[in-house]
Amino acid sequence: MSEARRWPSVVFSVLCTALVACGSGDDDGGCPDDASAVPDVAGDYLVEIDQLRSSNCPAAVDDLLEEVLDESNSCVYDLSQDGARLLGTSCDGLAVRGCVDSDGNASVTESASESQQGCNVRIDATIEANLIQSPSNGQVDFRVRISGNCILQTDCVARTDATVTEVLPLASTSASDSPPRGPAGEAARALSATLID
């Protein structure tokens, strides 16, 4: 399997290896109650992310994120839908949840955390794109929280551009391919391992 297909977990793992404390949120993100005008966007979507566009993170965090994104920049997300609420899994098995509006604009978040020797990293990766159009230009925000016995502590956000493309059933990967790892998990692991004090 190509390293370029492991972005969400990879980023999360890299960062978590340097920090910790992740999980998925329990609220629905304020999804609209009236789902009558919401389009059906359930399906599989390939998310391909670019390099960092902006960040208020320390340079050490940005450098690790960029390394992870160089190696793991795509992931397929399997989304189901209940009204305006979206639930699903990322290519590395992390739960994602979010909402879609009447124009097809979706926002889903996955979370990952890692802790090593008291250095805790949590990354919440939020993907935003219009799922009616394919491919669609979107963005991914990586909210990074580093605490504990680490060489630095921070609560920051790094943003990338992304392209989101609906994956047709015939375009799925072969059974011989290893499951890809996403950037959120990989970044959490790498940051946690690198930032131990």
pLDDT < 50 stretches: 1-28, 171-179
Distance between the termini: 33 Å
Give the strand order, joined by hyphens, for the main sheet.
1-2-3-4-5-6-7-8
In which range does the helix fraction lie? 10-25%
Helical element count? Answer: 3
Q: Hey, roughly how much beta strand do the residues contain?
A: 35-45%
Average predicted local confidence, pLDDT? 78
Domain count: the total is 1
Any idea what the shape is? elongated
Question: From the helix content, strand content and strand pairing, which structural class follows?
Answer: alpha+beta
Work out the number of β strands.
Answer: 8
Compute the CA-based radius of gyration: 16 Å
Spell the H/E element sequence: HEHEEEEEEEH
Report the sheet with the most strands, covering strand number, pairing sense and barrel closure. 8 strands, antiparallel, barrel
